Amino acid sequence: MGRPGPEQDNAAPAREGLASHGARSDRRTGAPSRSDVSLVIVTGLSGGGRSTVARALENVGYFVVDNLPQALLLDMAELAFAGGGVARKTAMVLDVRSRAFSTDLSGAVKSLRERGFSPRVIFLDADDEVLIRRFESVRRSHPLQGNGRLSDGIAAERELLREAREQADVLIDTSHLNVNQLRSRIEELFVGDDSRQLRVTVLSFGFKYGLPPDADFVLDARFLPNPYWVPELREHTGKETSVSRYVLGQRGALAFVETYARLIGSTAPGFEREGKRYLTVASGCTGGKHRSVAIAEELARRLREMRLAASAQHRDLGRE
Questions:
Q1: Of 13, 152, 267, 285, whose CB neighbour count within 10 A is largest?
Q2: Helix or strand or coil: residue 5?
Q3: CB neighbour list of residue 261: distance below 8 Å, 6 or more residues apart
């Protein structure tokens, strides 16, 4: 059931650690604390990309446990704490196909926190049409469709996981992400991970493809002139210097970026105090190719200058 990370041979979790799970370590003595365990719970819709996320977490040094019954979350967390080594970074992938799956993920997470752990929950979502295409492409039935249609199984799973989605720390809609983009998103979120620091993803997108459902802030760059109508810029993107200079050189562009940089910088400490670890700032234009990309790159750069952990991602780049 365990999926080893690159250094699993150095880790041998000891089951006797379960016997002492009631005691919390005292930081004043320098002893290990359960809050030091980087604990990630991966859940979401079947076909949403859980296996890709699991492999990405392995790439950044996590010990990954696939298809873990929810009833064993606390036991697995205690094993990770007792084992030390690579097990101190453990990801647990939950699957509704497990007969032991429960809808009370919030209760399980609460139990982990009461024990002293600081788990983070990743929820993977996607549009119904996308999920149907993915299942049909591999000629698989949905685990919950029974004798019904694929759409019936997806609807049943959405209802089963509704509360888990609402309470997730990280919500990722994979509808418009390929495997490499999803892996890159996870690796950027968790590589060199400091679980107490807010991580900001500035995500460019095209309004004609829909709003990113995981956005905390939405910026509309359509007030700027569109490079699409400049023949020599049309085939280029906002990541290229010529387009970036054109977009950022427009009246109001730099003030727009600076205003949002200050807003995010001033709210970041409050988000951290409230326990929010991930912030998605969506930057949109018509097609997600020129203006939104240039703005996203510049905003992420400004945020890094403010000592925030920020990176730019481009959801719709290359779709046109």
A1: 285
A2: coil
A3: 299, 302, 303, 306
Classify residue 202 as exposed, middle or buried by CB count within 10 Å of its CB (0-12, 13-18, 19+): buried
Q: Tokens 């006797």 belong to which residue?
A: 16
User: Is there a contact between 14 and 75 (Cβ–Cβ < 8 Å)?
Assistant: no
Domains of the chain: 2-195 (3.40.50.300), 201-314 (no CATH)
**Do 247 and 238 meet the contact criterion of CB atoms below 8 Å apart?**
yes
Q: What dihedral do alpha carbons 56, 58, 63, 67 form, nearest 10°?
A: 50
Residue 228 burial by Cβ neighbours in a 10 Å radius (0-12, 13-18, 19+): middle
**Overall pTM > 0.70:** no
Cα angle, residue 156 at apex, residues 212 and 94 outer, rounded to 5°? 75
d(Cα 241, Cα 277) in Å, to the nearest integer? Answer: 32
